[in-house]
Amino acid sequence: MQTRRTQCLYVIIVLHSNFAEKNIVPKFLNLIINWLFPEKCLICNCEVFEKAVFCPKCFSALTFIDRPICQFCGKMLALDIDDITYCETCMNSKNEFDFCRSLLVYNLFSKKLIMKIKKNADRHIAKKCCSMIEMRYNLKSLQADFIIPIPSHWTRVLKRGYNPATIIAAELSKILQIPMNTKILKRTRKTEYQKNKSIAERKENVKNAFSCSGNVSGKVIILLDDVYTTGATLNECAKVIKSSEAKAIYCITIATTENYS
Ligand SMILES: [Zn+2]
Ligand SMILES: [Zn+2]
C-alpha cells in the first residue's frame, strides 16, 4: 500500500517531467518538492532555505579561499601586495605539481564536512563540494585528461570499504566529464598517518610510497585529495607521475590548512 507521501511524489514526478519537456518547471512544484524534501545544511543537518548549502551559522564559520592566494599551493596570503604572489613555503621550496587549488580553509567546520565524506562516504556532500570548486576555479578550462584520487593503501580500503579521495574524485569526474583513473597511481606501501608530524617527517613518511604505471606521457592530470596540509603527499605523487612524462599536474583539495610549520 502506497503512502500518501509516495503518491504525492509520483504525481510530482509526472508533472515535473511533463513541464520539464517544455523547459518550464512551475514555482509551486519546486515549493512542494522542497516541502517534502527540504534541503539540509551539509554540516549540521538543520533545514536550510531553498538551494542553500549551509545554514547561516555554519556558513559564517567557514572561510572560502579567496584572493590573494599563493599561485603555487593556493593557500591564502596574509598580505594583499601585488608583488607577492607566492607564500613563504613555496618561495623556499619547489613543488612537483603545477599548482594546487582548494575550496575552504581547514577549520573545525570544514573538518566536519570532510569527515562526513571520510566516515560515511557521503556522495551528496562530495558532489556539492565539487560543484563549488568548479564554480570557483573553472576546472574545465584546464582540459585535463584524467582525474586521479590520491590512493589509500589496499589494507585501509579493505578496512573502510572505500577510499574517500575516490568518492570525491568520482563526483568531480561526473561534473567535469573527465574520466577518473584509479589504476595509474598506486600506494606501494602502508604509511603512517601524517597527523602530528613535522614537515620533514611528513616528506620522509611518504617518500617512495607511490608508483605510476600506464601511459601518462603528454597528459594533463588533476590529482585529488581531501586536505592540503604541507603538500608532502601531493608532491610525492606528482613526482612519480611527472617522471612518467605527464605534461601538467594540477592538485585540487576540498580544504587547505593555513600555513604549516
Ligand atoms: Zn549548519
Ligand atoms: Zn604556497
Quick gist of this model?
The protein has 261 residues and is α/β, with parallel strands linked by helices. It has helices spanning 4-21, 27-36, 56-61, 88-92, 108-120, 123-137, 154-160, 164-176, 199-206, 232-242, and strands at 99-105, 146-149, 185-187, 210-212, 220-228, 248-256. The chain has two domains: 4-37; 58-256, 3-Layer(aba) Sandwich (Rossmann fold), CATH 3.40.50.
Question: What can you tell me about this protein's structure?
Answer:
With 261 residues, this protein is α/β, with parallel strands linked by helices. The protein has two domains: 4-37; 58-256, Rossmann fold (3-Layer(aba) Sandwich), CATH 3.40.50. The protein contains ten helices and six strands. Helix 10 (232-242) links the parallel strand 5 and strand 6 (248-256). Helix 1 (4-21) runs antiparallel to helix 2 (27-36) and helix 6 crosses helix 8. The chain binds zinc ion (2 copies).
Topology (SSEs and partners):
Blueprint: H1 4-21, H2 27-36, H3 56-61, H4 88-92, E1 99-105, H5 108-120, H6 123-137, E2 146-149, H7 154-160, H8 164-176, E3 185-187, H9 199-206, E4 210-212, E5 220-228, H10 232-242, E6 248-256
Parallel strand pairs: 1-6, 2-5, 5-6
Antiparallel strand pairs: 3-4
The chain binds zinc ion (2 copies).
